[in-house]
Amino acid sequence: MQLAAGMARLGTETAFDVLARATRLREAGRDIINLGIGQPDFPTPPNIVEAAVKALRDGHHGYTPANGIRPLREAVAEDMWKRRGVDVDPDRIVIVPGGKVTMFMAIAMFGEPGAEILYPDPGFPIYRSLIEWTGATPVPIALHENKGYAFSAEEVLAQITPRTRLLIVNSPANPTGGVVPKAELDRLVAGLARHPQVAVLSDEIYARIVYDGVPHASLLAYRELEDRLILLDGWSKTYAMTGWRLGWGVWPKSLVDHAVRLAVNVHSCVNAATQWAGIEALKGPQDAVEAMVRAFSERRRVIVEELNRIPGFRCPMPGGAFYAFPNIRDTGFSARELQDRLLEEAGVAVIAGTSFGIFGEGYLRFSYAASIDAIREACARIRTWIEQRR
Ligand code: PLP
Fold this sequence. Notes:
About 40% of the residues lie in helices and about 15% in strands. With about 400 residues, it is of the alpha/beta class. It folds into 2 domains: about 5-45 and about 285-385, Alpha-Beta Complex (Aspartate Aminotransferase, domain 1), CATH 3.90.1150; about 65-270, Type I PLP-dependent aspartate aminotransferase-like (Major domain) (Aspartate Aminotransferase, domain 2, 3-Layer(aba) Sandwich), CATH 3.40.640. The strands form 3 sheets. A 7-stranded mixed sheet has the order 2-8-7-6-5-3-4, sandwiched between helices. Strands 9-12-11 form a 3-stranded antiparallel sheet. It has a two-stranded parallel ribbon with strand order 1-10. Strand 3 (about 115-120), helix 6 and strand 4 form a beta-alpha-beta unit. The longest helix has 21 residues, at about 285-305. The protein is globular and about 60 Å long. The structure holds pyridoxal-5'-phosphate. Pyridoxal-5'-phosphate binds near residues 170, 203 and 242.
């Protein structure tokens, strides 16, 4: 068999490899604490589960329109108004099986040999993987620890060339928990006026998981980008629905038909019952979301304090998502060696920063979607392990 060349260029999410290794060690009887996994450790709120069950009982068993059922797109539009203050036509919304699918569509639409796509590094590994698959040139945007893992708008703008087709922004971010300050977004958007050929994919899947009362700054709110901004959001993280596979994209009018055509070619539509559950999630009570964010906020405080007690670790306070991203350079270990040895020898699963790009060397990603006891125990194990080696 001869595979298409692009297949050899596809990357992956190494978080899944670490998860598989942690599971194997557990099955072999080892006590492993998993701070590697990027999903809420809460169940989906019961009212949402009930809405899906009801939809199945009510006979919602068939295909739906490829862009999603109308009441769900209206619920998303209402949510965009309520939370981002933006009036969005429901016909610009495309419902997809998970946030990742909007990412795939946007990168597939703009990527081809000769094109350049800018993406955050360290960043969600699928950005680079898909860019390379299309044959486009991936251009990493460095994120800076001393800027709370935000980018410098000036640096981003300086990397734009006539070949740049798409710029990917992710705030709050995986893997750093970084939040790009509104002033930096203002500077970026002002500068983009000089580059009207560049489309923007704003991955805001963690928009609802922000701390300290700082409101989420959305690129959707910049009207001057309306005809070239693709917003990626979804239910996975906000409503603890990662396994349901449900997300939405807000597309510029001129790109909606292309997104829908991709949907028709790949998945036809999202399963109907899940779409009805999505309506209940957006329009039903939000107290479960608020309770989850409060729990994450407390765990964030604990994990940052504990990580900063480990010799050689330095961890800034993340502004969003549920990841801490300590600098581990002073331990003398590379990110990959520390990841592997902490798993094998200390029984703690975390992810090497290099899994998220070259600028991730010298860092580890900790997911604090775990109990406070597990977080404290994991950090104690790491501290002991490091102290024995100094
Ligand atoms: N974008 C970022 C930054 C993520 O971290 C993730 C999941 O980890 C996704 C998108 C994908 O979300 P979904 O599970 O809804 O496809």
